[in-house]
User: What shape does this take?
Amino acid sequence: MTTTAADPAPASGSGDTSGGVPSGVAPEPTDENAWLEDIYGEEQLAWVKEQNSRTEDLLEDADYAELEDSILEVLDSTDRIAMVGKRGDWYYNFWKDGQNPKGLWRRTTWESYCTDSPEWDVLLDVDALAATEGQEWVFHGATFLRPKAGEPYRLALLALSPDGGDANRYREFDVERRAFVDPADGGFDLPTAKGNVSWLDAETLLVASTAEGLPKTASSYARTAVTLTRGASLAQAPLLFEVPQDHMMAVVAHDPTPGFERTFAVDYIDFFNRRNLVLRDGDWVQIDVPTDVNVSAHREWLLFRPQQDWTINAVTHPAGSLLACGFEDYLAGVRDLAVLFTPDSRTSLQSWSWTRNFLLLNLLKDVSSEIRVLDPSRPGAGADGSSAASAWACTLLDACPPLHDVNAYAVDDEDEAGATADSGAGDDFWLVATGFTTPTTLMRGTLERGTLEHGHDDGGRQEAGEALGVVSRHAVVKSSPSFFADGEYEVQQHFAVSDDGTRVPYFQVGPRDLALDGQNPTQLSGYGGFEVSRTPAYSGTVGRAWLERRTTGVPGADGQAAHSRGGVYVVANIRGGGEYGPAWHRAALQENRHKAYQDFAAVAKDLISRGVTSRERLGCVGGSNGGLLVGNMLTRYPELFGAVSCGVPLLDMRRYTRLSAGHSWIAEYGDPDVPEQWEFIKTFSPYHLLKDGVEYPETFIWTATSDDRVGPVQARKMAARMLAMGIPNVWFHEALEGGHAGASDNRQAAALQARSQHFLWRALAGRTG
Assistant: This one.
């Protein structure tokens, strides 16, 4: 029997009454698997390989091979949309496929991009680079130096990870020469480490890093930032900014927008609290807002989004609002804020993006998209303070069908009229639309102020030339193909009722002729943390690996004849997420974490009560914080599920703060070293909730050795404890590379997805599919 009780206190007279831990620190329960925390130890990796072999023997049959190939076909499809980002006259893209598993960084012109077969100018072949240098590089993006006026974008810092983890090596690259700038010639080449980098000018970088002995925070991120000039070393670079060791991390960035050049620093205290500072005359000036108010600067504007209700100037703005003030005005002490968005019980702000003259707001209304366009130059309905509407003129963008996710963001807000066909695109925007059964579509549009050309009879209120709001013109640029027979399926939205009466939305994707007899293999997915929203999205992988698979013949209810059927896919929008804004997130923080799990269980119960599925046919899947979610389904609600797929998970909530980047999540979960907080944390720590004599669902736990965010050890220890307890049908797999995503190329991603999907299908529907 495995015990999870706290270590007993020493015998009387031993001279130590602390239980082996410092005074005031919660005791640590017995952990017979602590040896597995040595990530790269020889004995530990031998255990991993043994478990991998055992799991591969179970899962990797002929059906698995066919499934993996089918998923890889989706991921490697050359018909996918090559999403681009505009810099100067070029449109940049990073592309992976079967011939280029590590990827190509490339660019093209707008005219070429609009054709069916664009001509791509390949800047960097990552596969060739990896072969030449003998390092399995994973491309993590490029940061360009803003050129002088009239000159093209040329120099960029490329982020390359050696194993797919969060630590990157930054190397200077010349896109005209299609080559790295040699450090011997002064090129920047920063050692692999966690951190961030920003160009100050052509000769100087602002660097927050843990390389070359620079200090780390308790969360393993950069504690300091330095000013690095060409030819200098990080260790010798002068200190620019520093945060306390127990804060999460330091970030620095320079905004080179002409006329609005500013250098910023952010002291991330934790995931949801930060201090924002701007450099003025050599000194850091803190922007005077509460630490839980998100701040965003753009040209002359400063935007604010509070995470909790914020009272300023005797006005209380609810959490999730968007407010504005002139940047210089606010620093000078002005506190009259313009209200741009106020949330309600159904509507939340997800993101925003500036074009040259307008502000795009991406909203969710009951988890369906809505987009508003604001014009700062014109007053809106709320300008006089008499209405909750926007203080800036607001126009609804007609581009959002129900039960879809649609996002709008600027193409290039600094683009002005020039020689190329698409120049003057400062008010252009991208529009990306997707749904569970709707392949992704990329559109491009233009915003402009509308006027009434001819007066009309409306009681004299409108005259010719009067403003009519923002006019939008947008058209389809690219469309993704269908990867499954999406027309045969329908999307429904339902609401379950949680234990405290809260209505919890969820999406259900299934056949149009779905039989409500409780016999449908159903996969329930969720996340419920860090204000992350789970929105509708097209997935060829889910379509092929779950919806279109078929049982060999499952008997219906009440003796009905057996018939073949496919899967049902469900996404739960539980508390802890961001679907209804900060309040929805904060409702499941720390001591209220159980509400997220009650919500997820309520969705499971609703699916069963509606006849969609049954315990034997219902499985759940989640990764990272979602792995903690399904770990709690495994241990707290085992009676609801037939199978659990638990990926890159948090599971040992007593030691999570000491593993990888776990210390940075204390604001979300609580601090287990504090006795009062451990009392509630231990109620959602799956590693400590396992009990003998419980009928647990079939369980697949998967992770990656190179995951430097959550790390692989919590998954290892959970699997080891379950196996030692004699719990049947427990399987474990650890990819040896791939980082927190568990995969660094399409082949690895296909294998990861195939293992999880095949495990669930075998457990819930039988072997043949």
Remarks:
- The first strand starts at residue 85 and ends at 87.
- The radius of gyration is 27 Å.
- Residues 52-72+483-765 form a domain with the Rossmann fold fold (CATH 3.40.50.1820).
